[in-house]
Write a structure and sequence with these properties.
This protein is of the alpha+beta class. The protein has a single domain, classed as Alpha-Beta Complex (paralog of FGE (formylglycine-generating enzyme)), CATH 3.90.1580. The chain has five helices and 13 strands. A five-stranded antiparallel beta sheet has the order 1-2-5-13-8. Strands 11-10-9-12 form a four-stranded mixed beta sheet. A hairpin with a 2-residue loop joins strand 1 and strand 2. The structure holds calcium ion (CA) (3 copies). The site of one calcium ion has 4 residues, from strand 11.
Length: 300
């Protein structure tokens, strides 16, 4: 339950939230407000999107000095408050889900030379693989279409919402914590990528089992039950890519028409460093990118 809703509870009958809270107290469990609540929305033809409720809270956005000396755009950090709970896609949007909006889109293949020219390569267009090769504007159009279907405001997450949800209360480089086996939590550029692109920059010491993008939800989720925030495909955000410290009031949430957008989370084609919670890069909003997809926010 979001803080807003909890605050609006009157003296009437107990709500789901108060019952859950009482249960948690009875069990001696400190239940974070909102974390873990789920709902589904129907895209038609029996295809659903599962959403996880992300609670109100505050976090440090960006990387502490020394986490990744090459990535200076992650500093300086800022304390950012998420003042309103929201619903975030539990998974990246899949090809099957996207096809209900745009049946003509084909995420296609990654061929052995990475160019879709030489051989059939590795499929990226399976129904449960994440959609990619869609622009940020396409992602926004999908969200608008979905919002009209379900009668809610739907959009890609802001850059702050994305990092807050990715961290899920952690301040380590990855939400699985320091010392965890990343290959159990993420699909990144591991030894398998050598089978597709022998020259690719990759971490040959790790084996996540996937050559290119794989079905969403194959790895372990983060502490808030969100999958593939690290890796698989990178994800569009609604926010202009501007220098830190992050300030939502400086116009970055109203990007200029062709201003580059922040893209988050890294992909199957990125080294672990580029899949960290704080990692940022950017593309023009009109540019479809072979390893960039998105997930949806549904506002409360
Ligand atoms: Ca991989
Ligand atoms: Ca991802
Ligand atoms: Ca960067």
């Amino acid at each position: 339950m979001g803080e807003d809703r909890a605050n609006s509870v009157g003296a009437g009958a107990p709500t789901y939230g108060t019952i859950l809270g009482a249960l948690a107290l009875a069990c001696g469990v400190a239940l974070a407000q909102g974390a873990g609540a789920e709902r589904t929305v129907d895209l038609g033809n029996g295809v659903l999107i599962t959403l996880v409720q992300v609670p109100v809270g505050e976090f440090t956005m960006g990387a502490p000095e020394g986490e990744s000396p090459l990535d200076l755009d992650e500093q300086p950090t800022a304390r950012v408050r998420i003042g309103k709970a929201f619903w975030l896609g539990k998974f990246e949007v899949t090809n099957q889900q996207y096809a209900l909006f745009d049946p003509a889109h084909n995420t296609g293949w990654i061929d052995t030379h990475g160019k879709d020219r030489v051989g059939p390569g590795v499929p990226m267009n399976g129904p449960s693989q994440p959609v990619a090769r869609i622009s940020c504007l396409d992602a926004e159009r999908f969200c608008k279409w979905l919002g009209e279907r379900i009668g809610s405001t739907c959009r890609p997450p802001t850059e702050a919402e994305w990092e807050y949800a990715c961290r899920a209360g952690t301040s380590t480089a990855f939400s699985c914590g320091d010392g965890a086996d990343l290959a159990k939590f993420a699909n990144f550029a591991d030894a398998n990528l050598g089978n597709l692109k022998p020259w690719a920059i990759r971490d040959n010491t790790q084996n996540d089992g996937a050559v290119a993008s794989c079905d969403v939800g194959r790895y372990q989720p983060n502490p808030w039950g969100l999958y593939d925030m690290h890796g698989n495909v990178c994800e569009w955000t609604a926010t202009a890519y501007r220098p830190y410290p992050y300030d939502p009031g400086n116009g970055r949430e109203q990007p200029k028409p062709n201003e580059e957008r922040a893209v988050r989370g890294g992909s199957w084609d990125d080294m672990p460093r580029r899949c960290r919670s704080a990692f940022r890069l950017s593309y023009r909003p009109t540019q479809p990118v072979y390893n960039v997809g998105f997930r949806v926010v549904v506002e409360e």
